[in-house]
Amino acid sequence: MDTKQLQDLFGEFLQALGLHRPDQVPTGFSISLSEMFALMALAAGAPMSQQALAEQLHLEKSTVSRLITHLSQRGWVKRVRDPRDTRMFRLQLSEEGHVQASCLAKRLTLRHERLLAELKPDEQEALAYGLSALIRALHTDLEEGAARDVEKSSTI
Fold this sequence. Notes:
Elements: H1 3-17, H2 33-44, H3 50-57, H4 61-73, E1 77-82, E2 85-93, H5 95-117, H6 121-154
Antiparallel strand pairs: 1-2
């Protein structure tokens, strides 16, 4: 595969998911991709700090702050005092947030089952292998890019 083919396939993949339209939600859903990830992260574990959520989602703290404000306005997330440190707040899903997260998880599972049903077993295996390798390469590129950015800023 050459870089042009990768670029074309990656672009086609993102468009098929509807992710090329930042002002719109992913195809088939009524919430943004970052809201999806936040709901699923909060549903998966104990209440967490806003900073911990930002780290888990690889988003800036200010972005997560706006995201949580929006989810709170929808009644899906609430900020509760940390019992060990009352100066701090922890984020947790409200009852309605748990309902929404559960519905989201079910819809994602059904969608993924439909997608996998369209693939032969060897294609499923190749997809898992290829996506894992691509994710690894993206993380490496992100880390190296951050290091390059630090080097550039120190030489100015």
